[in-house]
Specification:
The structure is a homodimer.
Chain A (H helix, E strand, L loop, with lengths): L14 H18 L6 H8 L3 H8 L1 H11 L13 H17 L3 H10 L5 H28 L9 H19 L6 H9 L10
Helix pairs in contact in A: 1-2, 1-4, 2-3, 3-4, 4-7, 5-7, 5-9, 7-8, 8-9
Chain lengths: ~200, ~200
């Protein structure tokens, strides 16, 4: 039990300890959900005390938001190559992230907590959802501007459908086939055969 | 506290009380999630005792599965009319159900509990996810057999994309626009103009 004197207003003084706390909290969030993640369990797994966790992260919701901001994810692919290939790379990256350590359980717990702790879903959107949607929308719009996919396509809607196909597949089966990204993209943005160059 | 004598192995003896327990548990599942739903809170809200709840539903997971089996949802639309109109009706029905009382929080808590209580997600799939997917797949396949949507379409994939577009939109914004079903369907199955009859 560390003394509760002279609180430095959350200023991190030991980056190693901060990292240990976030790693422990991330694992608990993935395995036990927000409701099952206690400050006691985070402190114990990080080898520290509850007051030390509180001092750094201002309570349980603060720890969870910090975890979301620091999520160890597969970074999004570089922006090079033809738009369709980049769309495919973004969707493959999304699939890889969903398959990492209970990611759908994390999405689930943020949705389950939305009305009590909207800051969790907000942090997740800011850190992951919005950048991915924006990147996918952009490559779809670039494709459109050069004549693909079909000109009735709405980049925002198509991005939502492509991303959503992975959520809905998981909800239906807990299984995301290897070639899902290719097959989903093919439905709305068919790969032009090489021989059809013009 | 009722006496724990002569357990009738879960046989319901008072349908009114069963309904009161399920209604209380449904509300708690929607508002507090599975982790926040205690047998004590269910019993109190239903005006009964924990042993009475246990006797009927075999513990907390049993209550939750019974809630999912009995979810008060908007029933799926009747199977009549042209395939495209039926697809639209199914998607509008799905949207209406997602917008009812914290439904995305319920989906979230089932995903969050998947590894601890897979029977919850399994019950949800059996009761809601699979019938909806099957119905949508069928109308897409019927449309295909009469030349719409485009012949490269894969009914299972398109059904997953259309359903998923609502999940992904919610994850991104918590908002499901009125005309979302129309706009999403239009992307993959354009409405033939009236004048194009042949």
């Amino acid at each position: 039990m560390s003394p509760v004197t002279a609180r430095p207003a959350g200023r991190p003084r030991d980056p190693e300890l901060d990292r240990a706390i976030l790693a422990a909290a991330e694992q608990l969030l993935r395995e036990a959900g927000y409701a099952g993640m206690s400050l006691e369990s985070v402190a114990a797994a990080a080898g520290t005390t509850v007051p030390a966790v509180r001092r750094r992260f201002h309570g349980k919701a603060g720890v969870a938001v910090a975890v979301i901001d620091s999520l160890r994810i597969e970074t999004m692919p570089a922006e090079s190559g033809p738009p369709r290939s980049r769309a495919l790379a973004l969707l493959r990256n999304f699939r890889a992230n969903l398959l990492r350590g209970n990611s759908m359980a994390v999405v689930g717990t943020l949705l389950a907590e939305e009305h009590r702790h909207p800051e969790l879903l907000a942090a997740f959107r800011h850190r992951l959802v919005e950048p991915r949607r924006a990147a996918l929308r952009q490559v779809l719009a670039e494709g459109l501007s050069s004549g693909e996919p079909p000109d009735s396509a709405d980049p925002d809607l198509l991005a939502t459908m492509l991303i959503g196909s992975l959520y809905a597949r998981y909800v239906a089966t807990s299984d995301l086939p290897d070639d899902w990204a290719e097959r989903a993209l093919q439905q709305v943005w068919p790969d032009a055969p090489q021989s059809a160059a013009h």
